């Protein structure tokens, strides 16, 4: 194997994706020097296959593209959904010299997109986010000295939203989501605002879970919570919501591995810390688009038990939720709870209840069910458990692209 040619191909595609050696190294879990050696053909005589597979994923090219100068057709299903590609491509566009939109205009567009996300209008985000990413990047590059902090805060929030959007599509966009989260945190640090730093940190933590590093995610989220607790507590409900969401992120990360007594205890402890913060806040509030409060903590407690495959305990925890308060949550949280209850019902062999919950989620927010890989796989599992799926379930499966 000609190592030097592989290194040159990696350098070529890294440059095409507008990734610096430092950014590429971070996504690979390596240093800038490691990347320099790899691209120079000095890492080893035959780079490990796992290294090349990871590089191909980050560069969004087929593995064969690193092994040959020919451009093979990508395998079917290897690319993210079509309406997501524009958002992914926007992450790799360099800002041109055209005057950026005013920050006030960008903030209004950002608020609109955040509302669309909470309403599960993901197709709207697919249309709006590319221009917003490019515009916010230009604004940050060209902001006058006195407005740099504000511009970086807007840019961070845009990247945070992009991260949350890409996480909806699971493994297909996990690498790009990690890149967006890293940029969100970098912009937040430049803004100097602890709220944005905390909010970006939880996106980074979730990205670490997708990269199969849940313990690192726990440590990252809890470290950020400790570092920022004082500043966030002094910011009222906005800061408390940010702090509470960091503890919820730690709980979800801790419950991303197989169930053990220690992991259950750790995840429960993080939820209890989030509950303490929610009690201090006093109500469910949509500060910084979090919908944080006692109800959201309860929803995450249900999710945590489902992740540990404890369906019966999840159903019991759901019974403790205030039904009226749940209906006051955003459509995204409500639909997510219906999907979670479908999973709990399937775990407890209550197949009819699982169908009811899935249909309720789809009626409330079709894009939360029909366009998300995790939800589609759940529909597939439910259909597979039903000896004779009913008409509504069959129709849902067909809308998800499944046979029923």
UniProtKB/TrEMBL annotation:
GO terms for molecular function: DNA binding. InterPro entries: Cro/C1-type_HTH, Lambda_DNA-bd_dom_sf. Residues 10-66 form the HTH cro/C1-type domain. Keywords: DNA-binding. The keyword DNA-binding applies. This is DNA-binding protein.
